[in-house]
Design a protein that fits this description.
Blueprint: H1 4-41, H2 44-50, E1 52-55, H3 70-75, E2 81-83, H4 88-98, E3 108-111, H5 124-129, H6 133-149, E4 154-155, H7 179-194, E5 207-211, H8 230-237, H9 239-246, E6 251-254, E7 258-259, E8 262-263, H10 268-278, E9 284-286, H11 304-314, E10 319-320, H12 324-334, H13 340-356, H14 370-374, H15 380-393, E11 395-399, E12 411-415, H16 423-426, H17 441-448, E13 453-457, E14 460-461, E15 466-467, E16 478-484, H18 503-516, E17 520-525, E18 541-544, H19 552-560, E19 624-626, E20 635-637, E21 642-650, E22 656-666, E23 677-686, E24 691-698, E25 705-706, E26 712-713, E27 717-726, E28 729-738
Parallel strand pairs: 1-2, 1-10, 2-3, 3-4, 5-6, 6-9, 12-13, 12-16, 16-17, 17-18, 20-28
Antiparallel strand pairs: 7-8, 11-18, 14-15, 19-21, 21-24, 22-23, 22-27, 25-26, 27-28
Helix pairs in contact: 1-13, 2-12, 6-7, 6-15, 7-9, 10-11, 11-12, 15-19, 17-19
Bound molecules: 1-deoxynojirimycin.
Residues 61-62, 112, 156, 209, 288-289, 492 line the site of 1-deoxynojirimycin (NOJ).
Length: 739
């Protein structure tokens, strides 16, 4: 009898699982059938209309807007989607026009909701520092809830481009330099935006962008070509896109960039063969802003007609803003240059998403939450989440025991205009965020230290980049100075040749230390790794505070006062000098690996080869000891789980959280591999004196890498494994993988 019950339960489970599968299959078939029936009714012009996207002329996120009458174009069925429509009333107006078109096909509305819609959260690179995937899902969920209330169906996020070069301003928008971690972040954020399925009207479609290798822009210059090996493409840049598909991302965006001789928007092997072929992606691909028309500037197309042909054949389903499709595809089909099956496939993909969103049933189903928008305030729950996200994103880079600040500290000088700036805390890509929603640093600090005298001193003029007169500083017990980038200094089209913090800002830190002799705490704002070697020796503590969004002031104060013990780790390397860029921890060994005392090794003669702060680095107010990892066996077969254990102990005075990182090295491989590769991490919270054992489990798949045929394989042999709290602070063990 005992064994019958579990069996019965098992049978019932199988029955329901099958029933659910059949049900979802039926829904899918049903949509497919309905989409096909609509396509049969459509004229060629109407089909191409679905592949056309315009931007609302009231908001611009690209260079040129055409002067067509959008409402009229929509009424004629010549538009499938609008971007940058930010109000429900405007969205309704457009949708009403679509309902006047012959087949009443609804529009889909998209926008860049990158790190929040109304509630601005930390920029993605900052959030990636938290190594808290659940948190990233939660903030994306809120962004989706707010965006959908504004009548939006679709965000152009997450950006899953791996970025190894901090000169590229868009590093702020991604998860940093590591591919393995980038895959996890991609999944977490897609899950947050899209929820379980699109029938939930508080979720929106996500978009994995920019396909592909946009982040490999030569010399870190935005829009520049990516000239990388096939192996690097597969190993480093493509996996996060694949991961987004595993998380069922609805759409992709093609990149602006040229990839190894073919512009990404015309890249047939990439979109048609790999994405839609081998990877079986069933969503649709939108171009980047005018990237179809820009094929002419790449000089692979002589005119807009050529451009439309190349992009559509390559697999780009929707033309964002260049009008190349709507002006030329009809002719191209009529002349036989583009087969109608290409058009039908694109339209089917786009209409399927509109069906799945429920827009055919009710085109206005995302337009009935205006009441939520009437409240001018940020929802308290969202604020709490933003505060938590901010605190978890702050990386403690240096601490000569001056932090946390005790509430007994009497006189604090808070120096620098960034301390009162609201706008600069939002960072780039702010959605519908407003400066007035922001808690600036000064307000946050005053609220957390009510018993201290906090004196704000401007000290610096951002417009002229010069220091201002300072008062007598010795009367202060502690000096906090905020330097770094303003919100306009990282993001799209914000590449820099020099990522150093302005020398006058750095001199200010030196002057503060020399004049006061008091502890100087430096807060650094910014959207990318910055270089600040000149001021570093004069700082007693340094916190990388990025751009943290609406709760910036509170999150920073939580960390300064120890209300939150910092736990973040750098997801991207901070160089010592701009000339080190691109710099990343997982570089190859080279034939002459760097050695401090051998000049004929891979190094510079005018600067250290090592970074200022390594990938995975980040301090806490407490200290942790992580023991040398142990394995129960020295050899593992391909089908065995590989178990690695280590003991983590809190050896300091405060309760704290450590992110224990696991890296591997394939000692000998047929294709060269990085010196080390992140393959696991775990966060563990411990009280002072407490210790816990943690275990990592790997399978042979986790050890694999791409061969020259672009196949993911795992070769037998010795693997080294490293455990520690930063990519440059590791203890090692090794084992052999045997066939
Ligand atoms: C250009 C950017 O590259 C892309 O990421 C963004 O989604 C579009 N503009 C639309 O704003």
């Amino acid at each position: 009898m005992q064994s019958v019950i579990p069996r019965l339960t098992f049978l019932v489970f199988i029955f329901f699982t099958k029933a659910l599968l059949i049900q979802s299959q039926t829904i899918h078939n049903n949509i497919s059938y309905q989409v096909d029936s609509i396509i049969r009714l459509m004229t060629l012009e109407e089909k191409i209309g679905q592949m056309n996207q315009y931007s609302n002329d009231r908001k611009n996120t690209g260079p040129v807007i055409n002067n067509l009458n959008h409402l009229e174009e929509i009424r004629k069925g010549r538009v499938g989607s609008m971007l940058n429509v930010t109000s429900v009333s405007r969205a309704k107006q457009y949708q009403e026009e679509a309902m006047k078109s012959r087949l009443r096909i609804p529009l889909i509305f998209g926008m860049d909701v990158v790190h929040g819609m109304k509630t601005t959260f930390p920029i993605p690179l900052a959030e990636a520092s938290s190594f808290d995937l659940e948190l990233m899902t939660k903030t994306a969920e809120v962004a989706a809830a707010e965006a959908s209330a504004h009548g939006l169906h679709w965000t152009f996020a997450p950006m899953v481009d791996i970025s190894r070069d901090a000169r590229w301003g868009r590093v702020m928008e991604g998860a940093g330099e590591d591919t393995w971690y980038g895959c996890l972040v991609a999944k977490a954020r897609v899950k947050g935006f899209q929820g379980k399925d699109y029938t939930d009207k508080r979720t929106i479609l996500a978009c994995a962008k920019h396909f592909a290798a946009y982040g490999a822009a030569i010399a870190g210059k935005d829009y520049a070509e990516a000239d990388i090996s096939e192996n690097t493409l597969h190993q480093v840049y493509l996996p996060p896109f694949r991961a987004a598909i595993e998380a069922k991302v609805a759409t992709f965006m093609s990149g602006f960039n040229d990839l190894n001789g073919i512009p990404a928007t015309a890249h047939r092997p990439l979109m048609r063969d790999l994405l839609k072929g081998k990877w079986d992606f069933d969503g649709f691909v939108v171009s980047d802003w005018e990237s179809v028309g820009e094929l002419q500037n790449h000089r692979v197309a002589q005119n807009a007609k050529d451009a439309a042909k190349l992009a559509s054949l390559a697999g780009c389903d929707m033309d964002m803003c260049s009008s190349s499709y709507i002006s030329n595809l009809e002719h191209l089909v009529n002349t036989g240059d583009v087969d109608i099956s290409i058009i039908d496939d694109a339209v089917k993909r786009i209409l399927t998403k509109k069906f799945e969103l429920g827009l055919f049933k009710d085109p206005f189903c995302y337009n009935n939450r205006e009441a939520e928008l009437k409240n001018e305030k940020i929802n308290n729950r969202y604020r709490t989440l933003a505060r938590e996200a901010g605190a978890k994103s702050i990386v403690l880079l240096k601490n000569n025991s001056v932090l946390p600040i005790s509430d007994k500290v009497k006189n604090i000088a808070l120096i620098g205009p960034l301390n009162t700036s609201k706008w600069d805390m939002l960072g780039n890509w702010v959605g519908m965020g407003k400066a007035e929603y922001v808690i600036p640093i000064l307000d946050g600090l005053k609220a957390s230290l009510p018993k201290s005298n906090i004196t704000y001193i401007e000290g610096y003029d951002h417009k002229t980049n010069t220091t201002k007169e300072l008062p007598y500083l010795s009367e202060f017990d502690i000096i906090i100075v905020t330097i770094g980038e303003k919100a306009t200094e990282s993001g799209e089209a914000k590449s820099k040749v020099d990522i150093s913090i302005d020398q006058n800002q750095q001199s200010l830190v030196k002057k503060l230390k020399e004049d006061s002799g008091k502890p100087v705490i430096v807060l650094i704002t910014g959207g990318r790794p910055l270089v600040f070697s000149a001021m570093e020796p004069y700082a007693d503590a340094i916190l990388m505070t990025w751009w943290l969004g609406v709760e910036a002031g509170n999150s920073i104060s939580d960390v300064l006062t120890g209300q939150y013990n910092p736990s973040a780790k750098l997801p991207i390397t901070f160089p010592k000098h701009s000339g080190q860029c691109p710099i990343y921890y997982n570089h190859k060994s080279t034939g002459r690996p760097w050695s401090a005392d051998n000049q004929y090794t891979s190094r510079y003669i005018d600067e250290d080869v090592r970074p200022a702060y390594a990938f995975g680095y980040g301090l806490s107010y407490t200290t942790f000891e992580i023991t040398t990892p142990v394995m129960s066996k020295k050899q593992y077969g391909y089908n065995e789980n590989i178990r690695i254990k280590t003991l983590v102990k809190n050896t300091g005075k405060y309760k704290g959280k450590e992110t224990v990182q696991l890296y591997l090295q394939d000692v000998v491989s047929s294709v060269t591999r990085p010196v080390i590769e992140l393959c696991g991490f775990q966060q563990i919270e411990l009280k002072p004196g407490e210790e816990k054992q943690i275990e990592f489990v790997l399978t042979n798949k986790d050890l694999g890498s791409f061969n020259l045929k672009n196949e993911l394989i795992t070769e037998p042999g010795i693997f080294k494994l490293f455990v520690g709290n930063s990519s440059d602070n590791l203890k090692q063990t090794e084992f052999e993988l045997i066939e």
